[in-house]
Design a protein that fits this description.
CATH superfamily of the largest domain in chain A: Beta-grasp domain
Distance between the termini of chain B: 53 Å
Largest sheet of chain B: 7 strands, mixed
Oligomer: heterodimer
Structural class of chain B: alpha+beta
Structural class of chain A: alpha+beta
Number of helices of chain B: 20
Distance between the termini of chain A: 25 Å
CATH superfamily of the largest domain in chain B: Aldehyde oxidase/xanthine dehydrogenase, molybdopterin binding domain
Shape of chain B: globular
Strand order of the largest sheet of chain B: 3-5-1-12-9-10-11
Largest interface: A-B, 55 and 57 residues
Strand content of chain B: 15-25%
Strand content of chain A: 5-15%
Largest sheet of chain A: 5 strands, mixed
Order of helices and strands of chain A: EEHEEEHHHH
CATH architecture of the largest domain in chain A: Roll
Number of helices of chain A: 5
Chain lengths: 164, 798
């Protein structure tokens, strides 16, 4: 079937099989490989993207269901090629990752959290990422990255904007 | 962590790999799209054991978009069985079951179609006629008389049964006033990376090259592919620049690769197999140890443990692979950090009708540490002594290094008593005990858990020769090449994949340290296997030591080359030439100097200014043999295994809800000594990740089977990985005892945390349960099990 998807502020017209997940559509049809398949049953969170500003699992949504929503993927976060956004930079500063497989999803979850709550407590950060499994880090450096990003974004006085 | 005399090593630098990952620009295997690539899905056996009577492919092949259905008979005729570690020719392992399938989920046929979805559809249309066969799941039942045989021609289910006696065990047992025995069970779990295993294979018949892109962490991978497919290693091109989405040991993927390599050659187009989560957890052959320990110790009135007898019975699953060797590696640290003077060790590996095992973080060391550390607590308990005090009395003292343990390995260095003292500097042990007792007084179950253990690192894997005399491998190497181009830029190469350990950062940091140049200007690349030097893989906590060692020596060769060229051009003897930050000057006349660009110009363009017969250009390489390696075991089974031994001391306080059995870790402190930390951010991350993984193994993770031999933990809703909610904040207290064997004093840390966390947690749970008069020595310590145990004990108490 023919669908239109708005991804990272660009609208694409696509032909997809009805059963194509949003994850497969982003990766295979649009070449946006930053969303990763981990479990494909909605537990690990590696496929997370933002749908109208809300972190969702793209493995549990069919591509046609995302029509009419603003989709943000990790590829939409860098201000320009080679330049990191504050959250991405904070993840580099604390080494909030190892293998990098769950990382784009973690960063998108952090983005949704900080857009909504610029000063989260440690508990709120832990809660926000609790639906995303990281097998490498034990989470501490991820929590530290999000806290550092929050501090820097507050300091820069440029709140995050969500596309809704 | 202090940088000390280092410029870049041990400083708080970023990890260069992180930039691509935060941008979503890692290159994982599933990101690789080759033109005309087709997709593989698998048909799996629904029985624990079954004879394959017939396979009807007609309906599947008639489906539009389906290209091929491969069965085990065709593959077995065209390829050789996969390489295994032990000499067990009657236990062949193949990518697809041939005649008999030996575990539920084993791959029986592979479908190739235009898309993965079509391949899955067609897989469902394949009709297979099975004759179910008797099966055995439990290791003890598998060695009992009359057990059904997993591999009939092998004649038994035992792959390995070897007993070692190091020292005067009988005498020590006879003369010790106390003995105790304990049975400890490590449940079948694994590392379960978030990325499943995947491989893309493409055959070019015009150049006779098989290109392989894989999510791999497998030693001798190209050799094994070539051997199974009966093609030369020079016809296999493995692309090491594929990012691996976590492995921690298990991404061995050899059967997947041989399957796809065969299909790519047979069909003439690229094929790709990306496991789905079920394929990964059931038929991906990525389970970890399932080990039963019977352990006995002899000790005196002071709690000094004189001797230990340990039987380790490992349920390796249906096929061998390298997994039985996981009984061998712990021999190199069989007494942990303690001065136990004699040991009897019986290593048994048994096949059953469960999924095949692969290597898991620590390669068998974490289960062994669990057994040793549970026993140390019980020794204290029997004597009414404090468990920390018992450990202190048994620990090897810092003035006793180098220290040779009964099994022949010499520990390099350590300062265990200082690490423990540092952990207790902020939170005194007495305060912690008071806190526990206060919790108990309030009606909670509370316990303190301790574990002191070692991380053998460096990967001198002579356990291969120890367990299989036909194997005479004593070479364990890694390599690095450096080239300075005609404009002065530096590029270094490494020759294996990485799965999150930051090896590009490691290589850049070490070379920068030696050359006194900013590591950020040093590019690090990963050529493919046809353009690589011999290398191991990131196993055995070896890369800081081995790749770091190779990079260090290569950089020194480059420095020597630059100095020699400069001395010649300056017309001074070598001993007067001083290298400093890329320049060389005359010690007697510091104004006489050659800059980096001068030296680059001479090496690349002014041969007339080069020393006589000197190699032009600025290219160097180094292949590094593992320190202290290179010998084979003695006749009585003693050998030096692994060069370096990191130390970790876990101390935690935990409470268990007496009504629900829910455990909560309230405090967690870790003392860690892995020598010089080349990149402290990386070491910290791996250590915290190891503890999280250990929490999983201790409390949640188990590949459980039902009585029919069906794996019942098939999804992430049944196989529970710790989330951010289950992992407490952990304080790490670092100490640095350099290794005398390594180039910068570094030891390994890739397995840290995981090696002691399950033991410390099990000890804490048992301490919490002690007032009820019950104990538990079987992992995982699930909430349901704890709840039942507590309820029973309370009912008995009335």
């Amino acid at each position: 079937m023919r669908i239109e998807l708005e991804v990272n502020s660009v609208t694409y017209a696509l032909d997809v099989e009805e059963r194509t997940t949003l994850l497969d559509c982003l990766r295979d049809a649009l070449g946006l490989k930053g969303a990763h398949a981990g479990c494909e049953h909605g537990v690990c969170g590696a496929c997370t993207v933002l749908l109208d500003g809300v972190a969702v699992r793209s493995c549990l949504i069919f591509a046609p269901q995302a029509e009419g929503s603003a989709i943000t993927t990790i590829e939409g976060l860098s201000p320009s090629p080679g330049e990191l956004s504050p959250i991405q930079d904070a993840f580099c500063e604390t080494h909030g990752m190892q293998c990098g497989y769950c990382t784009p999803a973690m960063i998108l979850v952090a983005y949704a959290l900080l857009a909504d709550n610029p000063s989260p407590t440690r508990e709120e950060i832990v809660e926000a990422i609790s639906g995303n499994i990281c097998r490498c880090t034990g989470y501490a450096q991820i929590v530290e990255a999000i806290a550092l990003a929050a501090e820097r974004i507050r300091g820069a006085n440029r709140p995050l904007e969500l596309r809704k | 962590m202090s940088a000390g005399h280092h410029r870049y090593v041990a400083t708080n630098r970023r990890v260069r790999e992180d930039r691509r990952f935060v941008a979503g620009k890692g290159q994982f295997v599933a990101d690789i799209d080759l033109p005309n690539m087709k997709h593989v899905a698998l048909v799996t056996c629904p029985y624990a054991a079954a004879r394959i009577k017939s396979i009807d492919k007609k309906a599947a092949l008639a489906t539009p978009g389906v290209h091929y259905v491969l069965d085990g008979a065709e593959l077995a005729a065209a390829t050789l069985p996969l390489m295994t570690g032990l000499d067990t020719p009657n236990v062949p392992r193949r990518p697809l079951a041939f005649e008999v399938a030996r575990y539920s989920g084993e791959w029986v046929a592979a479908v190739v179609a235009d898309t993965r979805a079509l391949a899955e559809d067609a897989a469902e249309a394949i009709e297979i006629d099975y004759e179910p066969l008797p099966f055995v799941l439990d290791a003890e039942q598998a060695i009992a008389p009359g057990a059904s045989l997993v591999h009939e021609p092998h004649g038994s289910n035992v792959l390995l049964d070897k007993t070692f006696v190091w020292g005067e065990v009988d005498k020590d047992f006879a003369t010790s006033p106390h003995k105790l025995s304990l049975r400890v069970k490590w449940a079948r779990s694994s590392t379960v990376p978030i990325e499943t295993f995947g491989v893309v294979a493409s055959w070019d018949p015009w150049s006779d090259i098989l290109d392989v892109y894989a999510s791999i962490q497998m030693p001798r991978y190209t050799d094994q592919i070539g051997a199974a497919l009966k093609i030369a290693g020079s016809s296999v091109r493995v692309h090491y620049d594929v990012d691996v989405g976590g492995s921690y040991g298990v991404k061995r993927g050899i059967k997947h690769t041989v399957l796809c390599g065969y299909l790519a050659r047979r069909l003439g187009f690229p094929v790709r197999l990306i496991e789905d989560r079920l394929e990964n957890m059931r038929g991906g052959d990525a389970h970890g140890p399932e080990r039963l320990f019977d352990i006995e110790v002899a000790f005196d009135n002071d709690g000094i443990v004189r001797s230990m007898k340990m039987r380790a019975l490992e349920n390796v699953g249906a096929y061998a692979g390298r997994s039985p060797f996981q009984l061998g590696k712990p021999i190199g640290a069989i007494v942990g950090p303690y001065k136990i003077r004699s040991v009897q060790y019986r290593a048994m590996a048994v096949v059953t009708n469960k999924t095949t095992q692969e290597a898991v973080r620590g390669f068998g060391q974490a289960p062994t540490n669990l057994a040793i550390e549970r026993v140390m607590d019980e020794v204290a308990n029997v004597l009414g002594l404090d468990p920390l005090e018992v450990r202190r009395r048994n620990l090897i003292r810092s003035d006793e290094f180098p220290y040779q343990i009964p099994s022949g390995t010499t520990y390099d260095s350590g300062n265990y008593e200082t690490v423990i003292a540092k952990v207790l500097a902020d939170t005194s042990y007495d305060e912690l005990k008071k806190e526990r007792d206060r919790l108990r007084a309030e009606g909670n179950l509370a316990g303190i858990g301790i574990a002191a253990c070692l991380e053998p690192s460096g990967g001198n894997a002579t356990f291969e020769a120890l367990l299989n005399p036909a194997n005479t491998t004593s070479t364990f190497m890694d390599s690095c090449r450096i080239n300075v181009d005609g404009l002065g830029a530096i590029t270094a190469t490494m020759h294996t994949t990485s799965s999150g350990q930051g090896h590009e950062t490691l290589v850049g940091t070490v070379i920068g340290e030696v050359l006194q140049l900013d590591p950020d200007i040093i590019r690090v690349t990963r050529p493919d296997s046809l353009n690589s030097l011999p290398s191991g893989t990131p196993v055995a906590s070896r890369m800081a030591i081995m790749l770091g060692g190779a990079a260090f020596h290569a950089a020194h060769k480059l420095k020597m080359k630059l100095t020699t060229i400069a001395a010649h051009d300056l017309g001074i003897p070598m001993e007067r030439a001083v290298y400093e930050r890329g320049e060389v000057y005359d010690r007697n006349a510091p104004d006489k100097r050659r800059s980096w660009m001068d030296l680059v110009a001479i090496a690349h363009r002014n041969y007339h200014r080069m020393p006589q017969d000197f190699e032009p250009g600025l290219a160097v390489e180094h292949i590094y043999q593992v320190p202290t390696g290179g010998t084979l075991p003695t006749k009585d089974g003693r050998v030096q295994m692994y060069p370096c031994f990191s130390f970790e001391f876990h101390l935690l306080l935990l409470a268990i809800d007496p009504d629900l059995g829910v455990p909560e870790i309230l405090r967690y402190r870790l003392g860690h000594d892995c020598g010089t930390q080349i990149n402290p951010k990386i070491v910290r991350g791996m250590t915290l990740g190891g503890i999280a993984h250990g929490i999983g193994a201790a409390f949640y993770e188990e590949f459980a089977y039902n009585d029919d031999g069906q794996l019942i933990a098939q999804t992430f809703m049944d196989y529970l990985l710790p989330s951010s909610q289950e992992v407490p904040a952990v304080d790490i207290i670092d100490h640095e005892t350099p290794s005398p064997h390594t180039v910068l004093g570094q030891k390994g840390s890739g397995e840290s945390g995981y090696l002691g966390a399950p033991a410390a947690i099990a000890n804490a749970v048992n301490d919490a349960l002690r007032p009820l008069g019950v104990s538990i020595n079987t992992l995982p310590l699930k909430i349901s099990k704890l709840g039942d145990l507590i309820a029973e004990a309370q009912a008995k108490k009335g």
